[in-house]
């Protein structure tokens, strides 16, 4: 809707303000029947879950979330996004996400910059791209034991059960529940902590309104009350695929009194809502709605009173944050699906891209092996007629439950370089006229060298093995020779200072740990870099340390089974400056302690000397009372000594006395 069509929308809105008798709503005849997906489809995003809980754990070091996901039989695709809230520039807490699924899932995980630990069943969850996070195998426990297992690692912030989700958005640091302990309860609203989109669209129904002439159509959306009754804005996106002049329609939105609407429509139409609504082109302009019936029959009556002859879509939804309506009726003849029984053969849903991602590559004993499980192929409804290497004479073997294609590095068209062996997997699918191709690789680990380097400047020119407290150090990890098909990533780093200094975590889950660590841009060759600043607040200061980093070589194609992990380390010497090291860079702790003690000692000696001079240079007349009251003088001296002793806890005062 553009600005020029707004007067028409207002005119239509005013024209509909003459209310007819409400008795029409009770006598309207309209037999709602399911509408085919080609005529209308409604998808939505909601925070309502069948079971869930949200609790507060503000002082917890680890933020724990648990997801129980139920999928229908067969592999499903899931997009899971973790989003960290940025508050006062602080870094997000470490996160443990427990993912419990009942069947095979292809997971697309996004958790950029979040120190994430993921617990899941590796036999059921397959990553479409390398996750790049710390992972843990989830034991095969029932739900109650999984919750107990997660609670042993930290207080649970949220837990939810979802049925066949297509996408999930989990917001970290957003828990605002009143509970201090998370226990699953039925029909919960997760608020801003979790929003999800069901895979199955909402049921869309339609009907003809008897006794009304014309071709005006109505789209009715009824949002049911949720578990919580706080103010909520529902964004409604309406996309009608017809020419502007061919449409005469009314949009009826009914929901709880605490719901307002933000409408984004691609066509001009009459709008009839409860609560308040605004248009996307004028979001700051709120328009008051009307009091509408809260029953299906009542809403059908409203559509008839607005002179609609066709209810093109009637949808009832749980409380949602985003609703998308796609329709193509445009006032034409309504087409319904009289029965939900499928009478035509299912369309071939084979996804070549997803099928190729299921090919597992294994490298061992100077041979490359490709494995494709038949069960996964069957769930994708794919019919494979051939699996070969680049050389078509090298064909896969049928081993009952899987196809296995194996070749030595010296045959089947293998391309051997100093660091990598490459080939191509070729899959012929019955539903595709051309074969599907995928690059496959094996790394020659004997030829790869991983180096960890420490530098004293951000130019990374002069390598060093010495660090100094208070001085920034720069680290770079390299692999040689470089491999363009693989990406070198830094998973974690820590500095082991032995029993004297303990372990300092620098990087966890590919995220910087602490304010004194910064991830830097990679080198022109793609080598990961970071910097850190080391401080010591205890004595003695360690003289040596070990810097250890875990790196991963991940194929850019996203094949998780080809990941290679290595741990590299280097010994570091730690310089411990003495008092002569008081330069413009600042004073280290031993120097500060030495100066403080020296100032205190000088101050005490000066005070004693002044008191001695004062007590021996007074006139005899003023000196005698002091002799007569020797005890009080001793008390005063004791008080003075006590005052002098107390300056040890305030080094700043001692320094000024000196």
TrEMBL record:
Region (Disordered): 626-658
A GO CC term attached to the entry: external side of plasma membrane
Highest taxon listed in the record's lineage: Eukaryota
Keyword tRNA-binding: no
Cellular compartment(s): Cell membrane
Transmembrane domains' residue ranges: 587-614
Membrane-topology annotation of the record: Single-pass type I membrane protein
Residues of the signal peptide: 1-25
Ranges of biased composition (kind: Polar residues): 640-658
Biased composition, class Low complexity, residue ranges: 626-639
PANTHER family recorded: ENDOGLIN, ENDOGLIN/TGF-BETA RECEPTOR TYPE III
Protein name, per record: Endoglin
Organism whose genome encodes this protein: Pan troglodytes (Chimpanzee)
């Amino acid at each position: 809707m553009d600005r020029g069509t707004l007067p028409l929308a207002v005119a239509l809105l005013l024209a509909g303000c003459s209310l007819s008798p409400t008795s029409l709503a009770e006598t309207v005849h309209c037999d709602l029947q399911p509408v085919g997906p080609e005529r209308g489809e409604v998808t939505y995003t909601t925070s309502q879950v069948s079971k869930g809980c949200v609790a507060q754990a503000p002082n917890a070091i680890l933020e724990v979330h648990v997801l129980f996901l139920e999928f229908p039989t067969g592999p499903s695709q899931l997009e899971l996004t973790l989003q960290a809230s940025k508050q006062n520039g602080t870094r997000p807490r470490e996160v443990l996400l427990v993912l419990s699924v009942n069947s095979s899932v292809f997971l697309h995980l996004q958790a950029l910059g979040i120190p994430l630990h993921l617990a899941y069943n590796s036999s059921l969850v397959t990553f479409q791209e390398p996750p790049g996070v710390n992972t843990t195998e989830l034991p095969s426990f029932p739900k109650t034991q999984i919750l107990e297992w997660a609670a042993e690692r930290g207080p649970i912030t949220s837990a939810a059960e979802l049925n066949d989700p297509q996408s999930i958005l989990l917001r970290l640091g957003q828990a605002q529940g009143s509970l201090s302990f998370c226990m699953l309860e039925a029909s919960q609203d997760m608020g801003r902590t979790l929003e999800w989109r069901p895979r199955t669209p909402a049921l869309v129904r339609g009907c003809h309104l008897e006794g009304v002439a014309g071709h005006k159509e109505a789209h009715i959306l009824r949002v049911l009350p949720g578990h919580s009754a706080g103010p909520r804005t529902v964004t409604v996106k309406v996309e009608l695929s017809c020419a502007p002049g061919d449409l005469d329609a009314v949009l009826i939105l009914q929901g709880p009194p605490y719901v307002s609407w933000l409408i984004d429509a691609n066509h001009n139409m009459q709008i009839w809502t409860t609560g308040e609504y605004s248009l996307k082109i004028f979001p700051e302009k709120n328009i008051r709605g009307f009091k509408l019936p809260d029953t299906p029959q009542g809403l059908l009556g409203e559509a008839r009173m607005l002179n609609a002859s066709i209810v093109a879509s009637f949808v009832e939804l749980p409380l949602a944050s985003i609703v998308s309506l796609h329709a193509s009726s445009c006032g034409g003849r309504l087409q319904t699906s009289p029965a939900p029984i499928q009478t035509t053969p299912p369309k071939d849903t084979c996804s070549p891209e997803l099928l190729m991602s299921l090919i597992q590559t294994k490298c061992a004993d100077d041979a490359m092996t490709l494995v494709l499980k038949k069960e996964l192929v069957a769930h994708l409804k794919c019919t494979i007629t051939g699996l070969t290497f680049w050389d078509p004479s090298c064909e896969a073997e049928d081993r009952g439950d899987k196809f296995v294609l194996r070749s030595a590095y010296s045959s089947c068209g293998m391309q051997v370089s100093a660091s990598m062996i490459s080939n191509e997997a070729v899959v012929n699918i019955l539903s595709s006229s051309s074969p599907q191709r995928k690059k496959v690789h094996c790394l020659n680990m004997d030829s790869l060298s991983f180096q960890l380097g420490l530098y004293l400047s951000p130019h990374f020119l002069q390598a060093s093995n010495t660090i100094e407290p208070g001085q920034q150090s720069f680290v770079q990890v390299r692999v040689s020779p470089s491999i363009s098909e693989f990406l070198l990533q830094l998973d974690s780093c820590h500095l082991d200072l032995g029993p004297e200094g303990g372990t300092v975590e620098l990087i966890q889950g590919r995220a910087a740990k602490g304010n004194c660590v910064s991830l830097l841009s990679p080198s022109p060759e793609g080598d990961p870099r970071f910097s850190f600043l080391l401080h010591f607040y205890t004595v003695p200061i360690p003289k040596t340390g070990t810097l250890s980093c875990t790196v991963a070589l991940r194929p850019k194609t996203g094949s998780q089974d080809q990941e290679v992990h290595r741990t590299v380390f280097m010994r570091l010497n730690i310089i411990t400056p003495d008092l002569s090291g008081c330069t413009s860079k600042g004073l280290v702790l031993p120097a500060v302690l030495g100066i403080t003690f020296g100032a205190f000692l000088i101050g005490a000696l000066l005070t004693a000397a002044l008191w001695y001079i004062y007590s021996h240079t007074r006139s005899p007349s003023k000196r005698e009372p002091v002799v007569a009251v020797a005890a009080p003088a001793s008390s005063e001296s004791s008080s003075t000594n006590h005052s002098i002793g107390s300056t040890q806890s305030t080094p700043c005062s001692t320094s000024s006395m000196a």
